[in-house]
Amino acid sequence: EVQLVESGGGLVQPGRSLKLSCVASGFTFSNYGMNWIRQAPGKGLEWVAYISSGSSYIYYAETVKGRFTISRDNAKNTLYLQMTSLRSEDTALYYCASNWELDYFDYWGQGVMVTVSS
Amino acid sequence: DIQMTQSPSFLSASVGDRVTLSCKASQNINKYLAWYQQKLGEAPKLLIYNANSLQTGIPSRFSGSGSGTDFTLTISSLQPEDVATYFCLQHNSWYTFGAGTKLELK
């Protein structure tokens, strides 16, 4: 059974940093692209970042470019999102999701909440 | 950017009903459209990919159709376990999601 389990969320002050993790199991993690997707309270889903299977290709949404860094450790089956210079508008439920190259998302985690507030 | 418009936002239907949900793209996305089901507190689940391909393990009462800008998700006979929010995703040009349709039982 495929599982994606996010962690690392919480309450953080504006301007501070936070690092999210997503541990994968049940599939060959190193063969798949991975993504972070978020949903702000009462808003729709927004794709945040993508990293290819071997980390060669990395893309970001304009709203987070320069502030967020996606990375992965295939030996640990783990995806990361380093978030810096956090803003109130980054408050959201953050999901990790897998895909084949830049295709649709096939598996998702349950999400981890990040709240940016003073 | 490609915008995705889902309708209706909310739908109430009875067990056994045929249910049709719509997703419209602001420009041609060919067949790069996926449908997801999300139950409260659960991870989104892929139902349909490439507009009309049923994901493995998904009941055959779910089907998708369309291409270009207009797409439809149909549940042929609504079951109680289908109560959920359904959203579409275009992946023709990066990624954009629809706002979702919340489906409940009448």
In total, the number of strands of chain B is: 11
Total E-strand runs of chain A:
11
Distance between the termini of chain B: 36 Å
> If you average the pLDDT of chain B, what whole number results?
97
Instruction: Output the helix-strand order of chain A.
Output: EEEEEEEEEEE
User: Which regions of chain B contain 5 or more consecutive residues with pLDDT less than 50?
Assistant: none
Helix content of chain A: under 10%
Give the largest chain-chain interface (CB within 8 Å).
Answer: A-B, 19 and 21 residues
Q: Determine the structural class of chain A based on helices, strands and strand pairing.
A: mainly beta
**Class by SSE composition of chain B:** mainly beta
> What is the tally of helical segments of chain A?
0
Which quaternary structure do these chains form? heterodimer
Name the poorly predicted regions of chain A.
none
Order of helices and strands of chain B: EEEEEEEEEEE
Helical residue percent band of chain B: under 10%
The outline of chain B comes out as globular
